[in-house]
Design goal:
Elements (H helix, E strand, L loop, with lengths): L4 E5 L3 H12 L3 E5 L11 E4 L1 H9 L3 H7 L5 E6 L4 E6 L1 H7 L4 E4 H11 L4 E2 L4 E6 L4 E5 L4 E4 L1 E4 L7 H6 L6 E13 L9 E7 L2 E8 L3 E9 L8 H11 L5 H9 L9 E4 L7 E2 L2 E3 L2 H4 L8 H17 L5 H30 L4 H13 L2 H13 L5
Parallel strand pairs: 1-2, 1-11, 2-7, 4-13, 11-18
Antiparallel strand pairs: 3-6, 4-5, 8-9, 9-10, 12-15, 12-16, 13-14, 14-15, 17-18
The structure holds flavin-adenine dinucleotide.
The site of flavin-adenine dinucleotide has 35 residues, from helix 1, strand 3, strand 12 and helix 10.
Length: 386
Amino acid sequence: MDNLKIVVIGAGIGGLTAGIALTQAGYEVEIYDRVRELRPVGAGISLWPNGVKVLNRLGLGDRMAKIGGIMNRMEYRTKTGELLNTIDLMPLIHEVGQRPYPVARRDLQMMLLEAFPGEVKLDHKCIGVEEDDTGVTAFFENGHKARGDLLVAADGIRSILRTYVLGEEIEPQYGGYINWNGLVPADEELAPQDHWVIYVGDHKRASMMPVAGDRFYFFFDVPLFKGIPANPDTYKTELKEHFAGWAKPIQTLIECFDPYAVARPEIHDVGPIDRYVKGRVALLGDSAHATCPDMGQGGCQAMEDSLVLTNYLMTTNLGVEYALKRYEMERTERANAVVQKARKRAEQIHGKDPTVTQQWYDQLAIEKPTDVTNAITKVITAGPLH
Ligand SMILES: Cc1cc2nc3c(=O)[nH]c(=O)nc-3n(C[C@H](O)[C@H](O)[C@H](O)COP(=O)(O)OP(=O)(O)OC[C@H]3O[C@@H](n4cnc5c(N)ncnc54)[C@H](O)[C@@H]3O)c2cc1C
C-alpha cells in the first residue's frame, strides 16, 4: 500500500524503530511522546543479532557498530569468583551472521532519533483513540488530535492503548526481582574488556559487559519483594549487603559506580496476550509483550515488530486491517514465545524454586559452551531475519 499516514504513540526503542522503518517505506509518520524530554530509562542494553539485523536492514549497521561494545566471550563465575564456564561467542556470530552489541541506551536513543527524519512531538500524552471507516484519530491531553490511516501503539509496558485493543486492563506481572544498572569506566580489575562476565550465587547476579567508549554496562539482580522504596543514597550500602562476601571485582564495582546515574527497576512482564491489534491500531514493543530481561530480547522483539509491520503494509493491497492482522498472527507467535521463555529463565535464575536454580548452577559448570551458544542461536534464528 502507498500513501499511508501513520501515527505512532511512544518514542522508545519500539516507536523510533517503527518510525524509521515506516518512513523508509515511503509513509508519512508522526511520533508523539508524553514526556517533555526524552531520556533513556536504564543505562545499557544488549542487542542480540536478531535486533542488530533489523538495524542493518534500516541502513544503521555502521552506526550501530560504532556504539556497540565488542563482546567476544561470555564468562560465568561463582559468587566468590571461581570460573564456572567460558563461552566463545564466535561460533554463534558465524552461525547467525552478526555480532551482538551491548550498547549504552543513550547512544542507541541518539542514533535512532537522528535516523528518524521527522519530528518527535514531545509533551503529547495520548488519552484515547477513535476509529471510523476511513481512519483513526488519537486524542491528547493538551487538546491536540492526530489522524492517520493506522496507529502504532508503542506506549510501553503500562500502555493505555493496550486496554483499548484488548477491551480490558492487563496488569504487568512482577518478575520477582529488582535490578540495579549503570555504566562505569572499563577496567581490567573489573573484567576483561571484551568479555561479558556474569557472577551467580544465592539466586542473585552481578554482571558487566563492554559498551563503546571504554565503558562497562553493569547490572545487579536481587530477588526481593516489590515496593521497597528506592533511594540512590542507600544503593551502595544495600548492594554491599546483598553482595557481601562476593568476589573482589564485584566489591570494586560497587565502590566505583555513581548511584545517582543508576536505574533501579522492579522487573515486570506482560502477557502472553493473544491480541496485538484492533482494527487500525497495532500494539508494538513492550505494550504488546514486555519481557523479563533475562534473555536480552525485549528491545530486539520491538525491532522485529517494526520490520514485520512495515513489510506487511508494503506488500499487500488488501487494506490496513488485513496487514495488521497478518502482523498480529506472526508477532503473537514469535514474541509471546519469547515472553514465556524469558519468564521461565527469570524464575530459574532467581530462585523461584531453589532446587531448579541449584541445578542451573550445577549445569553451568559442566555445560558444553556450544550448548549455550546453540540455545541462543535458536532464539535468534526464530526471528524474521534468520
Ligand atoms: C533492566 C532491563 C534490562 C533490559 N535489557 C534488555 C536487553 O539487554 N536487550 C533487549 O533487547 N531488551 C532489554 N530490555 C527490554 C527493553 O528495554 C524494552 O523491551 C524496550 O525498551 C521497550 O521499548 P518500547 O519502545 O516498547 O517501550 P518504552 O521504551 O517503554 O517506550 C514507551 C514510550 O511511550 C511513551 N508513552 C507512554 N504512554 C504514553 C502516552 N499515553 N502518550 C504518549 N506517550 C506515551 C513513554 O514516555 C515512552 O517514551 C531490558 C529491560 C529492562 C527493564
